[in-house]
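User: My collaborator sent over this chain with a note saying "see what the structure looks like." That's all I know about it. Can you take a look?
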Amino acid sequence: MLSYVIKSVVYLSLMYIPYMLLLKKESFFRFNRLMLILVMLLSLVLPWVNIPAISWGDYAVSVYLESGSGVVVESTDAGNTVGLPTSVSVNWWGIIGYLYIIGVAITLLIKMFQLGMLYRKIHQGVLWTEVKDGIRLFCHADDVSPFSWFNSIVISQADYENDADAILCHEREHVRAYHSWDILLLNLVQTVQWFNPLAWIMGTSLRDVHEYEADDAVLAGGIEGSRYQYLLIRKAVGTSPYAFANSFNHSLLTKRITMMLRKKSNPWMRTKGLYVVLVASIALSAFATPELNQQVDKLVGESQSMSKGMVSNDFQNMERGGKTTLSDFTDGQKKTKMRKLVKAKKVEDVVQCVVSDEQKSKAEYMGGHDEMMKFLAMHLKYPIVARDNGVEGNVQVTFTVGDDGSLVDVKGVYVPTQKAILQNDMIITGYKKADAGENGTAGANEEQLAQARKALINEAIRVVSLMPKWTPARKDGKQVSSSEQYMCRFRLK
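Assistant: Without extra context I'll predict from the sequence alone. Here is the result:
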């Protein structure tokens, strides 16, 4: 989730900042409005898109992971159940994730409240209503500022009697151009990126463009410019706290009058909008690059285990009626114990087996085996030098999980391709180049083959080194260091 939000913020920032520099002051208002809509939509959609073909680095791969146990737990003689303590680790990215969700919830509640107040304002104090051309007009007795929302227009009786032609022309343009849909999209972006100041600044830009577009329609409708500008000034400095749809303030008024007097921009200036294609392409290519993607994922990867709680239990050793059951253990431990329980013929043997295994527990990835599989599938990539030279092979990775859970002494050894696939093998599948031969070497010389094999080793070591701290192994109630090993099988097709 946090990875998506970070990417969404980056996309919006990279596309909106050039808009402010290149297009904000141009007078093709409808085009500018479409550009802002495009920026908002792309910031929501592009974080989900990954196109390996435009990556600056390695190609993305498919990873198939066989489940199993990486460490064999041997039983030892023991007499009684030993309670193991609970280890507590504070994950700051996990806390940030929770704070982000709280921020989203608060922002959403505020916006829902504002929407409710808007509908209340539309229907409260109405003198009369009228429907014309699919638009419902609500005339109020109070001195309300004119505004519109979808196909509803609100106006005071005084404004209707004195300036109905200009005000209704302005508000009908908001309705006709579906500006309310833009506001809904903007509020969605602001809810997702509630902490991003650019998302809120974009709201001002969108409001400006809406007003420019409506003002342009009024002038094109035959309303005299000087009269309309005087109306804007009167509404802005009058006693009403609102003005038209967006509660005019002086700065917006100045910009609107400036835009009315400004010479129309050269149509060729629209070509500056092509920056969106360039920026989006560069950002897509960058996020498809393993090196950059790795940094983003590394920032938030450790928080994945937080979805199951801030407290990680090495072994929640609970007793029910004086007996320990298999439900008290993790999935990996259950598999080890079930293999032994199958051989047990007496209840006493079953209980003794469980109690014995509890004295020595294996090291485990934070969040469990399934979370580790997800982590590996997300980060493992097929090295491009190996792919281009058609090199396949296996890398035996060994490492030590320290008594504090840190991974040290990570090593890798290249092993020739074998047909037999064992438990815990990780199969990384890439795609051959078109000129790769039947034997997969694509005409590579010995030096190139050596570099490719070294790249396979380095990739396996890189990903294992990225892992967050594990839950360390325990023996006799104490955290101890343990050795782990996995086989990474790189295959081309």
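A starting point for your reply to your collaborator: The longest strand covers residues 482-492.
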